[in-house]
Structure formats: structure tokens, C-alpha cells
Amino acid sequence: MPNDADTDARDPDERDSQLVDAARRQVRGEPGESAIPLGSEHLEADTPGARTTPEADSFAGYKIIREIHRGGQGVVYQVFQKSTKRMVAIKVMREGPFAGSADKARFDREVQILGQLKHPNIVTIHDSGETAGQSYFVMDYISGQPLDVYMTSGEHTIDDTLKLFGKICDAVNAAHLRGVIHRDLKPGNIRIDDNGEPFILDFGLAKVATTDAEASLMTMTGQFVGSLPWASPEQAEGAPGKVDIRTDVYSLGVILYQMLTGKFPYEVVGAMRDVLDRIIKAEPARPSTIRRQVNDEVETIVLKCLSKERDRRYQNAGELARDVHRYVSGEAIEAKRDSLAYILRKQLHKYKLPATIAGAFVIVVVAGFATSLAFWYRAAQERDRARLAERQEAAQRRQAEEHLEVGRAVKNLLQDTVLAADPTKLRGPRVTIAEALRAAAQHIDWGAYADRPEVESMVRATMGRTLRELGQYPAAEEHLRRALALKRELYSETHEAVADVLHNLVDVLLLQGKIVEAEQLGRQALMIDRAVYGAEHQNIAAALHNLASVLRAQNRFTEAEPLFREALEMQRRIFGPEDIQVASMSNGLSVCLKELDRLGEAEPLQREALALHQKLLARDHPDVLTSQINLAHLLILKEELAEAEMLLMDTLERQRRILPVEHPGLGVTLILLGAARIKLDRPTEAEPALRECLDIRQKYLPGHWLVGNTQSVLGECLAAQRRFDEAEQLLLDGYQAMSVQPAPPRRKREAVERIVRLYDEWRRTEEVERWRSKLREMP
Q1: C-alpha span between 362 and 350 (Å, rounded)
Q2: Average model confidence (pLDDT) for the chain?
Q3: Portion of the chain with pLDDT greater than 90, in percent
């Protein structure tokens, strides 16, 4: 082992070679000492060696270590600079000497732009040149992580996130002050070094705002330029004339949204046309609905950046940076300057001590005058407070007595109808819940609470809800109607207790297909809730959701959608994103969007609903199973049949454990399972599920269009088995039933399509043409 003197005496080229070899060993994870400390890098290129790399000595004075990034325009290598004995980065044109004139113009533009940008948080260019017909430039090598990796590698508070983001904005603003528009801001082009400092990279798509002629070399009208998920509406439109420094502000808004929530402001996966449409039109979800700690001020900053109209955004990154710095330092942000109350609150918070002293002085000045008034006011206030306390105490006593009476009533019902029941009169040694409730109802009908209508109304309402869960809809409806009549006699027509019963009655009527009355009562309930609770309350959200469900059942999907959205947004604002009612309302909106053929919007809502239900409820809870059923239906429509069948089999197994035999809730699962198996070309396996579904629906929903839909699907199943005579009767009966009580347009159209396929397979030419003609007339 040589000593230090020996090392110093070695040839300089030999020393450089050993340093480079040590660096390469460290990159590859090989053992050995290294004189060069290398940071961890996030490589966007493939594994080193997987791509063609220039020879180590391709650039005079530099030795290539490895490829660290390969983008659309160029390739970046980590290199060792012999003259300075340090690591730098070299960027070369991706196509090398074969690059076209437009690519060369872009590359030269990046060199010129980086050469004029001097900022501690923008990567510095040191040299440029050409070798073997290949242009290149040398810049700082930033050891660290891309912004997105850095943000997910640990916990970051809102303030810490904004301090980091403020530095990013300052750097972008340095470019904006020189008229440079980056046009490709994204987390991958922002690197955080080992000290937590950000650096803006890759100005390959940048342009100078004042050089329209040069910009035209790089962008053709209608051509998309940038990275799609972070693109602005004007970039998505392919309108280069609209691209200016406010375009970068929009991209910074998307980045800040990601930093705060870990998500994009709207869906950015799927067909490119769909993603472009969402960027142009879709309003971003409020960040506070995803991360509760995001307050109104921070949310205002984010949403101002993401305005679809350029004039409503911050006009440059400097304005954005100033508002971020103001927030971090506790000052009023510019975006909320139109709110006087907000400004006063912020100033008082910032200058708490001076404001306190000034306030104390004012109090001393007016104290003498106020004292004489205070004694009189206090006496009047004490008198009013005593009267109010008496009224509240009396009301609380009455409420407590009512609840106590209901408790006693429930206890007596259990004793009289279950514990003391004669098993032989209840058909067997095991008393079912339904039998016990029937006995309890008889007990009430005989006048058990004739002199206590408030107790009877509460007991009947409770029994109605219970019978609804058991699928005993007619019995549930009877109890709820009796409860409603009693509530209306006891209280005013617009009392909240009346609305509570209306909510449950609307649900039961809807389940029985009594749509017209359900809508009428649903509107009454919403009117009462708005009058009682004001602008926003969980009961209003529930009433909106119920009414939307009724409209959806009437195929009035465009009317139902805004009500579903209002209910969902209100519930999120009140309880945050992880609330059980948020899950149910996401589910309702998803089903509505599915019927509007907006499957791409419906699926994420449905998966959100299922994830929340699974997180907040027991695995076999009916709401969990409903979410699974609805997701399975979406997947069937999207032809993703394997996942759909798996979900439905799991759901059916769990339903059979917790629901009575022939419960109406089994119907949806059975028909969807049958439909999935038909599509999977297994009609003989589909038939038993479909026949069971038809039996249940004919028993519990006579005359409902769902019976006709089940007949139609069963007919398709038999046609697939070439049992054409049986299939024809079912298909025609199903279509007729769906016409008498109008089915959703999608379902009715599907029924006609099945008839056409039947006659086509059966070679009934005249019938095929007759039904195809009918199909052409349908919406």
C-alpha cells in the first residue's frame, strides 16, 4: 500500500483514472474505496449500460461516468472534469449528429438561455461546444433527488413545503424577469440537493417571450409542447400564441398541489384527448378535501395558480413567490386583498402586542362612560338569561323524559314480544327478527301507546328503519307513514322531526318503485332542512342525495348530477374526506355518471367510495358490498370481466351470510354475475343466478322495470345456449315491461340489441330488420 508521498508522485492521468474508476464502482455498488462522495440519484434513464453510451473520452478534458437522464431532446451524463477534479454534467443532443435543424435550434436556445440566467437555484452552465458533429454543454452536477421523490421520502409540514416552493418560484421568477418561459416545469425538472436546496433544470423547451420568430422555429400551431400532466390549458389547446409566463404559473400550481396533497388536481391518466379536455375544462378538487391541514389561505394560492383564465392567475412567478412568502411570515396574502375582515385579522395577529396596548388605552378612555350603562345592561341580561335557562331546562327535561319513555317502550316490546313469546305461536323454536317485529307491531296497533303519541311516533320510525334493512319494504312503509302522521300532529309541518321521517320514507318508496311520491316527499324534506338548518348542514346534504337518487331512478340523470355533486361537496366540507357519508355520496354520484356513459369520471369515484367503506366499516357491511357491486357493474361495462366476476362472487358469498333468503338486495349481485358470465361465454353458469334473481324481483318488485331487465338478460343467456324459443318469449316480455314503466335509456337500448342478436342468430331476417329499425329510432 503506497504512502501519501507515493500517491502524490503518481502521474496525474493515472490519478484521474483511479478517481473515475472509484466513482464508477460506487455507482455500480461495487466494493472499494472512493475519494469522491456521491449523493443518491433518481435516474430517469434505464439501468446503466442498458443504453448506448459514448466512449469515456468522447469529450476532451472529461471522462464519462454514466448516463443519468434521457429526455425527449437530450441525454445527460455524469462526467469527471479533469482540470477541476470535480463532478459536472454534460448534456448532448439525443440524436447526435443526425439531429434536425429544429432540434439543433432548441439545443442552441437552451445554451443561450442558461448562459444568461444567473441564480443560485438555477443550474449553471460552464462550457459548450461540439465534438464529432455532436453539440454539447457542461453544467453543474446536482447530487440529490427529484422534487417528487424528495416529497415522498419523509414528512413535510405545510410551512416547510411552502418555504421550499417559495425558493422554486424565486428561481422561476429570475427566468421570467429575463423574458424566459420554461414551458416544461414538473417535479422531474426540479432537483433537491443534499442540503434541501432546489435547482431548476432542463430549459430544453424554454423560449424567450419577446422572440416570436425564434419561437416559431420550435413550435408549430396545434402541436403540444410540454409534459402533459403539468400542462396549462393553453398548452393543452395547442395554441402557442397564448403561451406566456402565466403558463409557467399554472404548472407551478400543479406542482404545489402535488406537494401539498400527493395527487393531481384532476385525473391525468387515460386517453390523451380525455386528459387534454380535463386540463382545459375540469375544475380542480379543492386541496383541503384531500389534506385537511390545507387552510383557506393556502388553498386560495393554489387555486389562483390553477385558474383556467390566464388573467385570473398570478401574472408571473414573482407575484406567486411574494404571496407564498407573505403567508409563511404571517402577513395577508395578495390573493385575498378584497377581504377587509381577513386583512384586519392577519394584521392583528402579526402585531398582537401593539394592538393589545392600543386596545387597552381605548378601553381606559371609554371605561367611565361604559360603567354607568353596564349596571343597567347587566341586570337586564341576567333577567333574560334566567328566563332562557328556565325554558331550556324545561325543554331538556321533556326531551329526556321522551328518550326515557322510548327506552322503556323498547324494553317492554322485547319482553312482551320476544322474551315472553310462546315459541309455538311464532312458528318454531327460533324467533326471527321479522317475526318479533310483527308481534311488536301488533302490540302497538292494540293501543299500547295510545295516550303517548310522541313515544309511538319514535318507536314506529325505528321499526320502519329496521324493516327497511331487512328488505320488508311494505311493512317498513306502513310504520313510517304512521310515524309521519304522528309527527305532523305533534309538531309543525316544517319541523325537523318531520323531515327525519321523510328521509326514511323517501328511501323506502324509492326501493319499491313509487317514484312520483318519493320525489314529492323528497322535495318537502329538502325544503324543511334548508329552512331549519340554513345554508349548510349534514341533513341538507342527505336530503340532496335522496332527491338526486329519486331523479336518477326516473332517468333524469342530468338533473340528478348537480344535486349529487352539491351533496358530496357539502359533506366533504363539513366532515372532511374520510367520512362514511362521503363514501356513500361518492357512490351515488358515480352511479349517476355511469348512466351518463362517463365511465372515466365514474370509476375513480367508485373506487374512492369502496376504499372508504372498507376502511371505515366491517368487511361484511351492506355499504361495503354495495360499493363492490357498483364497481363490478362499471368493470363489466368496460369489459374488465375477470375483476368484475371476482368482486361479485365475493359479494354474493358475504350477502348470503348476512341477508335472509330471497332478500331483494341479492338481485343486483345475481343479475350482474349472470351478465358477466354471459360475456365470458359461460351462459350455462349464468342461468341459475339469473333465474334466482328473476324469482326475487317478481316477488318483491312486481311491475317494476327491473323485472323486465332481468327477463331480458335471462333471454340473452338462453339465446347464447341456442334455446331460441324460450329466449324469444323472455326477451319480448322483458322489453314490454321496460316500456310500461320506463327503464333508463341505456337499459332499454340494451334490451332491443339483445332481441336483434337473437333474431340474427336465429336467421329471422324480417324480424332482424324490424327491430334494427326500432333501434335506429332510439336515443
Answers
A1: 20
A2: 78
A3: 33
DSSP for 147-197, written as a single string: HHHHHHTS---HHHHHHHHHHHHHHHHHHHHTTEE-S---GGGEEEETTS-
**How many Å apart are CA 461 and CA 504, to the nearest integer?**
8
Look at phi and psi of residue 69 and say left if phi exceeds 0, alpha if psi is from -120 to 50, else beta: beta
Residue 133: exposed, middle, or buried by beta-carbon count in 10 A (0-12, 13-18, 19+)?
exposed
* Three-class DSSP category at 279: helix
Distance CA 119, CA 124 (A): 8
The count of other CB atoms within 10 Å of the CB of residue 460 is 24
Partner residues linked to 134 by β-bridges:
131
Q: How far apart are CA 502 and CA 508, in angstroms?
A: 10
Question: Using CA atoms, how far apart are residues 170 and 174, in angstroms rounded to an integer?
Answer: 6
CB count within 10 Å of CB 553 equals: 19
**What pLDDT is attached to residue 238?**
81
Contact 62, 81 (CB under 8 A): yes
Cβ atoms of 590 and 611 closer than 8 Å: no
Please write down the HEC assignment for all residues of 19-87.
HHHHHHHHHHCCCCCCCCCCCCCCCCCCCCCCCCCCCCCCCCCEEEEEEEEECCCEEEEEEEECCCCEE
Dump pLDDT digits (tens) for 757-779: 999 999 999 999 999 999 998 87
466: phi then psi, degrees, rounded to nearest 5: -65, -45
Which amino acid, one-letter code, is at 579?
A: D
Residues 6+ away with beta carbon under 8 Å from 725? none
Helices 705-720/666-679 angle, 10° precision: 30
List all residues 6 or more positions away from 609 whose beta carbon is below 8 Å from its beta carbon: 583, 584, 586, 587, 590, 627, 630
Longest dimension (CA), the chain: 112
**Residue 234 contacts residue 310 (beta carbons within 8 Å):** yes
Which residues are 27's β-sheet partners? none
Cβ pair 593, 565 in contact under 8 A: no
- The residue among 567, 553, 557, 493 whose CA lies nearest residue 518 is 553
pLDDT value at residue 381: 53
* Rounded distance between C-alpha atoms, residue 22 and residue 28, angstroms: 10
The contacts found for 567-576 with CB under 8 angstroms, 24 or more apart, are: 567/541, 567/542, 568/541, 569/289, 570/536, 570/540, 570/541, 570/544, 571/538, 571/541, 572/289, 573/289, 573/536, 574/536, 574/537, 574/538, 574/541, 575/538, 576/289, 576/292
Q: Give the residue with greater pLDDT, 58 vs 506.
A: 506
Task: Return the closest-CA partner of residue 653 out of 640, 666, 672, 634.
Answer: 666
Please name the amino acid found at residue 596. L
- Helix then strand then coil, in percent of the chain rounded to 5, is 65, 5, 25
Assess contact for 151 and 258: CB atoms under 8 A. yes
